[in-house]
Amino acid sequence: MSLAASAGAAPIPDLTTLPQATGAAATGRIWFVSKQGGKVGVLDPKTKHIGVLRTGKQIENSFAVDRDAVYIVSDRRMYWFSYKNGKPRVDWPVAYENSGIHESSQVDAVSGTTPTIVSGGYVAIADNADPMNVVVYRTAIKPMGKRTVCAVPVFAKGAGATENWLIGSGRSLIVQNKYAGIAVAPDASLNVGVIGGLVRLADAR
Q1: What letter does residue 141 receive in the DSSP assignment?
Q2: d(CA 86, CA 81)
Q3: CATH number of 1-95, picked from 3.30.365.10, 2.60.40.3200, 2.40.10.480, 1.10.1040.10
Q4: pTM score, two decimals?
Q5: Is 71 helix (H, G, I), strand (E, B) or coil?
Q6: Cα torsion for 78, 82, 85, 89, to the nearest 10°?
């Protein structure tokens, strides 16, 4: 799928698109992101207007939407976007830890997760630290307390990576390990072994 920001403009490549909410909460707007240049855009099908904001970052994953916000993770930051005056607006960004290590099972050296919306006003991702953390943020524009609620390390150092979204269930999150270790055999062939594993994190309150 390709969309142009204006008549005669070049198509925006590598798009991921999602409508904003469904049912009674539906706005009808369609949000999209592109990997190259970190473009974030929104299409209003009623007016055919397209508004685009260029973050200048790399966006590797899909994104999450609810009634009031769009949650997007780039190669360095987690964002809350809203719709204002016909275009995307950044209401808050927050940096996450990135070791810069490109694990063998990863597409790139970035968070491998689509943001997961958690009940109670939270959103979660896995970062690209070593060891990898599951990070939970408060979604409110002006939160009561710090933006980052917690960053919990999962899996062993040098042996954890994921390219799947976190599974959210109530106040619990489940993360899958897709780290693939590569070893060179005596005959110079490569042996790839996925360590695997699941970790469940839960709010103990």
Answers
A1: S
A2: 13
A3: 2.40.10.480
A4: 0.79
A5: strand
A6: -10
